[in-house]
Specification:
Blueprint (H helix, E strand, L loop, with lengths): L1 E2 L7 H6 L9 E2 L3 H14 L4 E4 L6 H14 L2 E4 L14 E6 L4 E7 L9 E2 L4
Parallel strand pairs: 1-2, 1-3, 3-4
Antiparallel strand pairs: 5-6, 6-7
Helix pairs in contact: 2-3
Length: 124
């Protein structure tokens, strides 16, 4: 389930990642409705994973999503702007993907120590 993507998803990329498009649903929503739709999908337990792009999310909203994901036993991803990284979040794992050079930085890893060194991404 994709909720509130900022850009039109590119089907060929999903197919290349071996995602069966018959099982991919997209919800176009506005602002606060993104959080509501995400919570409903997570809580239902009927989705394998939910990816959302919340435009406005405070720590309380994110905690609601975390509880909904645990309730529905559903994997959840929230893509947020880099500026949100300074705000508190209940997320167990927080990552930053840098474009140039392509690398991943771990901002938070519950139960572990984050490395100050980025991880070089090795995908094309």
């Amino acid at each position: 389930m994709l909720i509130g993507p900022l850009h039109q998803p590119y089907p060929q990329a999903w197919l290349a990642a071996e995602i069966d498009l018959r099982y991919l649903s997209i919800v176009q929503s506005q602002s606060r409705d993104i959080l509501w739709a995400t919570e409903q999908c997570l809580r239902s337990g009927s989705c394998g994973a939910v990816v959302c792009w919340p435009l406005e999310a405070d720590d309380r909203s994110l905690r609601r999503l975390q509880i909904a994901a645990e309730t529905g036993q559903t994997l959840a991803f929230a893509y947020r702007p880099l500026s949100a990284s300074v705000n508190a979040s209940p997320a167990a794992l927080r990552l930053v993907v840098d474009a140039q050079p392509v690398q991943i930085r771990v901002l938070k890893c519950r139960g572990g120590i984050t490395s100050p060194h980025p991880i070089a991404a090795n995908w094309q």
